[in-house]
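Q: Could you write out the predicted structure for this multi-component system? I'm mainly interested in how the pieces pack against one another.
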Amino acid sequence: MLDKKLKWIFNTFSGSVFNTVISTFCIVLLFFVINNLLGFISNSEWAVVTENRRLLLIGRMPQEEEWRAWSILWISSFLIFSSLKSFISPSKKELTFIFLIVMILCLIFTTESSIFKVIITLMISSFSYLLTKYISDTPIIHKFNKFLIFLWIFLVPLVFCLLLIADGPKPTLWGGFLLNIILASVAIGIGFPLGLLFALGRASSLPAIKIVCTVYIETIRGAPLVAWLLLAWFVLPKFLPEFWGLNDISVVVRAMIILSAFTSAYTAEVIRGGLQSIPKGQIEAADSLNLNVFTKTSIIILPQAIRVVIPALISTFIGVFKDTSLVFILALTDLLQVGRIIPEQDPEFFGKALEALSVVAFMFWIVSIALSNLSSRVEKSMGIGTR
Amino acid sequence: MRKSKLFLLFLSVMSLTLILACSSETEVKEVVKEVEVMIERPSTLKTVQDRGTLKCGVNDNLTGFGVLTSSGAFEGFDIDYCKAVAAAIFGDASKVEYVPLTASARFEALGSGEIDLLIRNTTWTASRDRDLANDFTATTFYDGQGMMVYADSGYQTIEDMEGATVCVLQGTTTELNLDDRFMSAGLKYTPLTFETNDPLQAAFEEKRCDGWTTDKSGLASKRAEFPASAGGPDSLVVLAETLSKEPLGPLTRDNDSKFYDVVQWVVFGLIQAEESGITSSNVAAMAASPKDPGMARLLGVPYSGGEVSDFQFGVDPTFIQHAIKAVGNYGEIYEKHLTPLGLTRAGSLNALWTDGGLVYAPPFR
């Protein structure tokens, strides 16, 4: 083992002149980057971030409504960490990585007043991980897994309940990281099934359905998201009927509608790519078994089509998540907008944009990296690229 | 077969011509309809009263005028005017829904009815007053565009700045004024534009630009807090010249006089309050025993057993009293938000007219 490592080091540094030059150059570069990064972290004044922790996480939600955010955090940390063990079972390396990220998050966002609640969160996380590990060999695990999947499906409605029950704050007050997560979840949760339907519709042989789906997809994809968002803000209310106060719906709902429509158009095209990759023989075989259209689509075509496009789908979802930061145009205070405005809060924060924005970037990075890791996991378990 | 197709084509061409011919008439009808809608549209004052909250379009990243504080509340000079109007209408300054707007979306938001009132450091200009669907009420702050340079650059006036690079915010009147000034002086310059202030400051600190132009109020606060690592406040000078007039104030929608009047007279009321020496702390005492009939009219209380003079603004006659209680008089608002930024009031355009400034209220009578 040690011998192998020594050999590797020897090879990288003195295998050939070219290797030596490249390796030395990279190490010097790495040294400077890390040195400057550490210098930036230690020399900067992080007050601009630490003073605004709440704004970054939940935006303009009033302090007395904080419990809603905490309960959402607790439920999701239970879900995330039990699913982590149950469905992903990470290696030691990955666990260390997750631990590191959680620690950095705690370091950034713990305040004196919230330390107790942060400890509860950490306890819930580790407890749910250990519990799942403990029962993973018992027969209960199957029921538990079903329960987890059920909870995942109903997580978004549950979050809405928690935000709205008992006279919750107006949706326009939702903000920060919470808003990005909510918008992205809704956009993906509604956009993906819709996109599936549109993809099937566009591949359909019925001209009416085909034309409607094609027009929808091309219209939505034909204009930038910013334009759609502005349209939703200023024009959509004029098209909606007045009953039930539909023409006065919250901008958050309007943003959700537009983001879902946008996601559905993009996923539809991705899935259509998958549909086209299915060999004709598969469909003919299904036909020869006399399967009806519904069964043929749901058990022969879609499972194969989606399997192929998982990398592209996940990258669309990551894109959607990052696109949610555009809602600042609709007067919503999302994570990126908070990062942009907090340096102007007080003269003592002037010129501290880099500190604020690097924390924002880190938050976006965590979600994106988690999603892409999830996608590579799913790919591996489905044997994509090997089969 | 062929003939019938030709006939169809003929028919469609005819109908198209007819439609085109009629369109001018329909246009007239549409205009008439629009005017009718305009007449029928209920006053924003009534909409606001029915809704129970005032939707106020504000800035969330201009220090002193409007920022989002760490507790999630809005704070600043402009924000206090939102509070004052809400207090005047409802007697409660907390009944405001703040809508943070970008510079480019603000007029659309007002025009489309997403907000009732726009108080977002908006400069009153002729084209904005004419083109956009809004009316400017009284000015709350007289600003002017200035130019800040490094003291060691040797620039004394704009004329010295031949070939200079100037940092400026995108899409603002500031950018246009800058161009006007340099063009008329026949000077070459390179504008370096930014969306927000912070990257602009970073560029200025790295000396990527020689000058930084924005409203003088902004320059004063940026200079006062200029980091010592980049030279500190003393390394900078704001040139004496004012490039343009920038009167800032609240905006309402066009043809909305009832609401417009309320907003305008709240602004005037707070100015008159300062002139009469009424503050947030003594307003209750003054209302109980007004010093003179003018003060009684301002506060909506009877003077020595006389009648209450109600100006029929559609709000409570004591509306100015509520506004003063909520945010204080003009001087108090200024002291609270702008003095800490290093914006001295004495001797500036924003001093009371009795002190040589431009801040003046028409009589309450």
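A: Regarding packing and overall arrangement: Chain A has 18 helices and no strands.
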